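Suppose you are handed only two things: the residues of a chain and a line of SMILES describing zinc ion. What would the bound structure be? This form records exactly that question and the answer produced for it, so the two can be stored side by side and reused later without any lookup.

QUESTION INPUTS
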Amino acid sequence: MEENKILGEENASPRKMRYTADELEYFRAVILEKREEIIQQLQNLRDRMMDPTTGEYINENSPYSLHMAEQGTDAMEREKTFLYAQREGKFLGYLDEALKRIDAGTYGLCIECIDEPQNLCDTCPLIPRERLLAVPHSQHCLPVKLKQEKKKKTY
Ligand SMILES: [Zn+2]
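ANSWER OUTPUT
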């Protein structure tokens, strides 16, 4: 199962096609920690969106929110909080998917470089460790990601 494929030319050094089990476990720990952090943040956001007097989530119809709306910024604040919570929730999903890739042993591979190594990184097709630690759910090496971003121009 643990087969290290060696790509290519006679004199090329063996290409590492996956992170070792130890490395994967290290990444797993990093991701789990990040995950805990986000779950905690989401809990805090949820608390913030709750009416302290009734214990119910604040919505358009709650008297508390109407009162707050007189100050004008409340709706906007709430909107921002919701959007933030949404983004964090999405991020949580990305981390869960990353954990699945760790189980599958495919974690850390750049999905653009796996079939056709572009050799934009020393570790190609593996995403360099530093990038994975900074963005644990990334599936592209940074050069590829930047190219894509230039293409679509947004986010
Ligand atoms: Zn790549």
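WHAT STANDS OUT: The chain has five helices and no strands. Residues 73-104 form the longest helix (32 residues).
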